[in-house]
Amino acid sequence: MGWESGGTEPLEVRPGSQLRKGTETSCCPAVSCQPGSQSPGRRPARNLWSHTCTHTFALRCLRLAHGADPRLRASCPRRGAAWQAGGLTPRVPDAEGILTPSLESGSPSSDDRFQKPGTHTFTQTMSGKGSVVLAYSGGLDTSCILVWLKEQGYDVIAYLANIGQKEDFEEARKKALKLGAKKVFIEDVSKEFVEEFIWPAVQSSALYEDRYLLGTSLARPCIARKQVEIAQREGAKYVSHGATGKGNDQVRFELTCYSLAPQIKVIAPWRMPEFYNRFQGRSDLMEYAKQHGIPIPVTPKSPWSMDENLMHISYEAGILENPKNQAPPGLYTKTQDPAKGPNTPDILEIEFKKGVPVKVTNVKDGTTHRSSLELFVYLNEIAGKHGVGRIDIVENRFIGMKSRGIYETPAGTVLYHAHLDIEAFTMDREVRKIKQGLGLKFAELVYTGFWHSPECEFVRHCIAKSQERVEGKVQVSVFKGQVYILGRESPLSLYNEELVSMNVQGDYEPIDATGFININSLRLKEYHRLQSKVAGK
């Protein structure tokens, strides 16, 4: 908090500091002083105070200090009496960061109040800490963080990414502004999410630990990239997020931010002791939200968290933290219970070029979609109504602990199976072996947040090269939670029907297989000959 005194150099009152050694006379440990006197006209030095304050003036300093910091007001056990003494009413900073104490009716004028023997005329100001772009979802955590950042003196710019989730974005905008956001940006990144993040994952057949299709992992670098763009455009030095200190998202967000803007500063409340010591869990956040009038979409009875984007939705926390507990009824929102799905399958024909889906056609009714976004949304709709894409897993987080997650990835699951099929149909065997290894590495790098690393760029380039001949159409049946491959065709197929036929000899001489078997058996014969010697000793 800055103070100016008759054109002299700024002085500072720090919470918990003592103005002089002596008996504390303030009502809380925010400011301490000792009664005394000051020589008129003495120029203040740069340290905390170069003179002793009168007890009355110290209390006025205390009241103004409390006005600038809501945390101090809340900690003061006798704040009511202290505020009213001298007729001061606390005010929060305005948009420019200026805090002006008001005068109550019947109180002396500001000049009378401060221009007394042995004192100077003071004007209180509070310099803001600057602007921070908060990745805002409208949920419990980021709503509370928005208010908390305001309490810390930041101008908060709320940024909400439209990444395909079902959300009332206009309502979210109103909520953020109501909670004190300086500006709100709602950015539609759905199309770039599909084309620049999901399609490379489809090409790579990426699975983390054999089952997870990386829905959240892929979304984070897309969201953070736009967050950095906004921070640079608005001149903000800080970005912030609501990722916990135990999860992967904190790494994904921040590695992206530091890659794209090395000078950016990240405020991660869940790693700050003053935040996580105050909010031990979601129940504390809900109580804080209640105190500050923050609408929240969760209740103590169903406190699991959800994260949705175009590719998937995840469920974690609450009763789900016990891996033995089954998912409660009604938890799933993106897919229907397979047992209650349609009793007839949907037959889809998916066309690929360079490993990327370019067209989907419903064979039954002729519905066709070609644009990347429309195609993906349609596959979500069809696969979702058949209950495709549900998994319940325990995975290894990057930071070392295991966690339980429930995921719904309908469109991603259909494309995973269809792409695997057309790839096997068109790709050389040895190239595919190498590509499979690259796919595993790609999944690991995406999961751990290294999307913008040089190694991930290299892997993506290699995978894209491998997909140049992956072209053709695959027909799939989507039914009762499953994806069944029905057939495929391609102008670039390596499948030779005549060569493989059991009815036509073609260019293949069966006698050649004898030498092939003899050569490949040589290594095995030698190995087991040695094993027999060892066993006989």
Task: Write a concise keyword list for the protein shown above.
Rossmann-like_a/b/a_fold, disordered N terminus, Rossmann fold, 38% helix, 21 strands, ligase, Argininosuccinate synthetase, chain A, domain 2, EC 6.3.4.5, 537 residues, alpha/beta, 5-stranded antiparallel sheet, argininosuccinate synthase activity
Structure description:
The chain has helices at residues 55-68, 70-75, 79-84, 110-114, 140-151, 169-178, 190-204, 215-234, 249-260, 273-276, 282-291, 372-385, 410-426, 429-447, 454-466, 497-500, 512-536, and strands at residues 2-5, 11-12, 17-18, 31-32, 88-89, 102-103, 122-125, 131-135, 155-162, 183-188, 238-240, 265-267, 305-308, 313-316, 346-353, 356-362, 368-369, 390-396, 402-408, 472-479, 482-489. Residues 1-127 have low confidence and may be disordered. The protein has a 5-stranded parallel beta sheet, sandwiched between helices. Strands 17-16-15-20-21 form a 5-stranded antiparallel beta sheet, with helices on one face. The protein has 537 residues and is α/β, with parallel strands linked by helices. The longest helix is centred in the last third of the chain and has 25 residues, at 512-536. Among the domains are: 131-300, Rossmann fold (3-Layer(aba) Sandwich), CATH 3.40.50; 308-426 and 469-489, Argininosuccinate synthetase, chain A, domain 2. It is 38% helix and 18% strand. A hairpin with a 5-residue loop joins strand 16 and strand 17 (368-369). It has 17 helices and 21 strands. Its EC number is 6.3.4.5. One of its GO terms (molecular function) is ATP binding.
